[in-house]
Amino acid sequence: MILATAELIGIFQWLHGFLVDLGLKEPWLSIVVYCLLSVTVFGVLCLIALFLVWWERKIAGHIQQRFGPMRNGWHGWYQTVMDALKLLQKEDIRVDTRDKAVFFWAPVICFVAAFMAYIVIPFGKGLIVADLNIGILYIIAITTFTVISLLMAGWGSHNKYALLGGMRSAAQVVSYEVPMVASILTVIIFSGSLSMVDISNSQQGNLIFNWFIFRPPFGIIAFITYIIAATAEANRTPFDIPEAEQELVAGFNIEYSGMKFAMFFLAEFVNMFTVSAIATTLFLGGWNGPLLPSWLWFLIKTLLVVLLLMVFRWTFPRLRVDQLMEFAWKFLVPVTFANLILAGWMKYAGWYW
Amino acid sequence: MTGDELKEYIVGHLEGKLKPLESGKHDPLFEVQESDLLTVAQVLRDDENLKFDFLSCISGVDTGERFEIVYSLASLANNLRIDLKVVLSREKPEVESVQEIWPAANWYEREIWELYGFDIKNHGNLTRFLLADDWDQGYPMRKDWDAPDFVRFPELER
Amino acid sequence: MSGLLTQEFTVNMGPHHPSTHGVCRLILTMDGEKVVKIEPVIGYLHRSMEKICENRTYAQCVPLMDRFEYVTAMSAEYVFVNAVEKLAEIEVPERAEYLRVIMLELNRIASHLIFYGATAMDIGALTPFIYGLRERELIIDLFEMTCGQRLTYNYMKIGGVSHDIPKEFIPKCREAVKIIGEKMSDYEGLLNENPIWLARTKNVGVLPTDLAKAYGVSGPVLRASGVKYDIRKNDPYSIYDRFDFNIPCRHNGDSYDRYLLRLDEIRESLKIIIQALDGLPEGDTLKKVNPFNFKPPAGEMYSRIENSRGEMGVYIISDGTTKPLRVKMRGSSYNHVQVLPKVATGVLIADLVATFATLDVIMPEVDR
Amino acid sequence: MGIIKKLPVYSEKIPGGGLVLTSLDAIFNYSRACSVWYLLFGTACCAIELMCTGAARYDFDRLGMIFRATPRQADVIIVAGTITKKFAPRLRRLYDQMAEPRYIIAMGGCTVNGGPFYYDCYSVEKGIDHIVPVDVYIPGCPPRPESLLEGCLHLQKKIKTQTISDWQEK
Asked: Are the beta carbons of A266 and A179 closer than 8 angstroms?
């Protein structure tokens, strides 16, 4: 039974017992439990995404010496809830010339793919939906779905700007996938496992100095290259060319309105949280840390990485598409692969592990 | 060169092709025959002491009696400035394009063609670009132009 | 890739597009990301100002000039007023001339700050935009305390300026000059050596000297292409010959040089303002003329000044009545849009945006 | 939106449906009023004031107003600047491209009635209400940022008085 491998926190153990008491049999038991888990994770993530949108606006405001949202609640804390509610009411514009199926499914795939990664991300000690033994591989596979959805959005909109945006996004994500995977592989060499829980576990103890980022020099190099690649992966400035406002108006989502746009919008922020969460798990010790509860540690670390990405966005200009490619293939790929090979060699030689 | 020296030099250099006008204040103003325009322009641009290589502006003018077209020239190298005026006939206003000499003339001439209806010979790209695509009310900058919603204010006297 | 069949396609950039600075429309023929052909279409803001001017008295034309070039409205007013004064041979009081120079230079700084912000925004950095506008507000405050308006001032009048400055103006102005001088290092720190900014602007949109001259390009764009020509020095109007300032000049003619040159110009303008404030004499600010019965003698002239974008000119023909016979406005952006296809053909669309931004085009000058 | 549009039809059939509708109205109106996203649109002088309003001193974002570059995602066009006869069809198209519910703020004299200067002009549209329905007029040439903010607050007030059943008529 898969359920046994996933350590659930108290409430779900209780729920499991409760359902067993009710007389629920397999496979229904697993289905019901997993549905409840998914809904919980989904709800939490939606809240996180809404919070991130608000947070981004506040950070942007304060970087730019203004306030950001102020009118709805304390410092506008429920501003983004209102935005979401409004987008829910907006007319859903369907362009006549669209490719019907593709246009419809693009935001859905984007949204679903963004959330599916969270099945294997450990939010805390034991706070994981399913501890797959190929966890990180699964994440790499599933986040790439985003690019398909963006390409679909670009194609389905029947708009040249959107198509350009979609193509840019495809080229960008495919290129940056390589250095990203290479820097993740460095961590896998350290930990010797693909499972997210195992990776977190192997960074336990010794205050914070067992974190993989503190394994000089390969850990820190891998972390930096990962953050760069992840920024590109999440389509954030300086790599936000798929939706470059000043060039392509709004890029792939130019024809989307209302809730479909909201799905793209939320997915973007969820993706940002995903890459930060992966960075936390792989490099910053996951849920490990002294004193505070594990989920709080995880949240703090992830939000700090998110903060980093946001500050990037409000500081840097945007790269051009060819410079972006050059940077990926001529700089990041060699660096990450050299890092990977050297780290592997060190491990093989057994120099400090 | 001061204004008077410049005037003398140009008149001496282009004997009979242009004549200075008194109405030009501040900078020298010359009148040129339409047929001489290109030769005069060529000399003005290429003469070592003049080098009017910078076309500031071309203005179409409708005085009510006649059409004029004014070329405002500047010389970046010698720091000079003059205006050239060509008087066109009211019946058949046409003028040679000076694009060959100053490429900047392209849009100015196009604009004059559009707003005044002067025929610019050898222009090559006389298409509408300032007015609306479906414009059909003639040449609005002419003095005798009229439209239903256009009000011409009387001369104020107080 | 030789066997691959590709097709060019047409993209309509504008008239409503975030980076066309208003309503310029560029019809782009593109091969993938590459711009093969650019065809600018203008006229979406053609407000027939030249026709309106022929239907107004001279005094009524002045506020209209504000709308001709609203980012540096002071210079647009000044170029008209200057022409009329020269036609009518009106002597302007000394204090008014100093005030005019102060206002013109303040407005030049304000315009360059907008340029700084808008260009950064077009290249993807959103924060410099807000920083540029933040310091611009200081200048706007000064204008507001002098003539009560934020954008369209109607401050220059035939024969002087409409209001004398209030007594708080001079300390406030000195303070603003000081603050802007200090913040310049912030601006430069944000972008000047940023590797992404360098990659995006260096050797992008190179405008060679010959091309610039031939197409009547003027102002900072011309100076960035290596021609040291500034009407303030070469054909001084008002009292610019009394001040000590440099004409910054650069030689590559690319976007980066155009950007740097404008930052340098802010510094020079600050210098002029301080000198003008120091030398500001007491006295009248306006030599009154009757606006209803003001008839300059018949004559014609082309008046030109250096505004923040380049040569701004007005060709006025007076026939001795209360209304001008012809007012032709010349804005430098007209030539800058005209030269854009020559500069930006064959580049990527992102470079087109960067080039267009650093040419600092403003559409009412083009369409009038 | 489809379901929400049909809500009044269904809810009035069941007892107490009116009450549901009223409270839904309140929530929905509040949310729409609180997040009015404006289109990045400016043609002339007023656009500079619009930019200033978005910048540090006046800060549109306080009201929950952020700009979107594409009309599909915008709720309001702040028509900042003169609309010429050549541009008028474009404005109409932009308006048509927006998703319901949509609003227009006419900013500045030129958009209100053709402006203080262009009454005898052959190329300026004398007021944009010939082209698109306008919700809030802000006179001024150009209006100060404060007036623009005031206009936006008025638009929010107007939105709060609407009901869901209004949408069907549009």
From this structure: no
